[in-house]
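for the writeup, i need someone to sanity check this before i put it in the appendix. the sequnce is what the collaborator sent (i think, or maybe the updated version? ugh). structure was predicted straight from it, no edits. if anything looks off just tell me and ill rerun, i have time this weekend
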Amino acid sequence: MPYKLQVSKYTSIKQLVYSCLIKSLSINTYKTQNKCIKNEKIPLHKGRDDQRILYTSNVSLGLSKSQNRKAMELASAIASDISGICSDVFSIQIVPPGLIHFELTHSTLATWLQSLVEGSGEWGVGSGGDEGEINSKFKIQNSKLKNFCLLPPASPRLRSATTCLLPPLSQCPLALSVRVASRREAEGMPNLFTVQYAHARCCSLVLLAHREGLIKLREPVPNTSPAFWSVISPNPIPWLNCDGTLRLNHPDERRLIGELIQVVDNIECPDVSGSVKWEKVALSLSQAFEKFWCNCRIWGEVKITSPELAQARLGLLMATQSVLRFVLEENLGVFAPLEL
């Protein structure tokens, strides 16, 4: 019995794979209320190879006995089912003794990155595998992830470039952030200034790109650090080359993308076996950003000879800023500064 996969560009990659597995298992297992589905314990792990986004599940090994089927046979049925409706979303491979590999395609990765830049919907409301909640967020009508749904135009009047970005120091959230950081340090907790600096650096570089005409923003001088960027052009960001491959193939670009995927997975699908150490997560993401910024140029020769690559790297900056902001403000309770 065929089914239509509901896919959302506002979710984590792990949620997307979960939804595929849950739907396929409801068809390919005769006990649809098995513990694996009911208790949301479908084993799924992201690989560490940043050169490709790969998730692995051994769910067929755990279910083969209860289904009275060989693990490879069940894995093949699941893979065939999913491949039939979203071959452009994942490249799926079966590996003995019954592992299922899901490798994200370049076009899907581009769509996911675009969603981090332009944003819509809410973050941090994922359950990690509950089919009802996942389906409520999966709004695209088919299994394709190629069309972007753009935000409505913003209406606020553009502010002068000389407008003060922060209130007086006594009222400034940054002053509060410094006090919070001092208290955290006194309590033996990590000082998150490095993460705040990375966030502010992302903002300043994006605004510089707007002033130099490399990109065009709808509201170039926001009051506070934006949750998402309203990009007029290029829209969408030119993530892909003419052959459909991702422009961002430098090791530090791929490492940063891998970190972004992992952080969003942690936000939407927290590991039920233990709590997420958000300080460590934030520091790791900021360090990946610093390496990217040190080794992947945007201005100079790159801007002149490869403007699309420069714009794709700016898109990665905007995606990083949106994730850093969420982690700082929602998970760590500190201010995400627009500038320092």
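Confidence is low (pLDDT under 50) at residues 1-10, 127-178. The chain has two domains: 13-137, 171-331.
thx in advance!!
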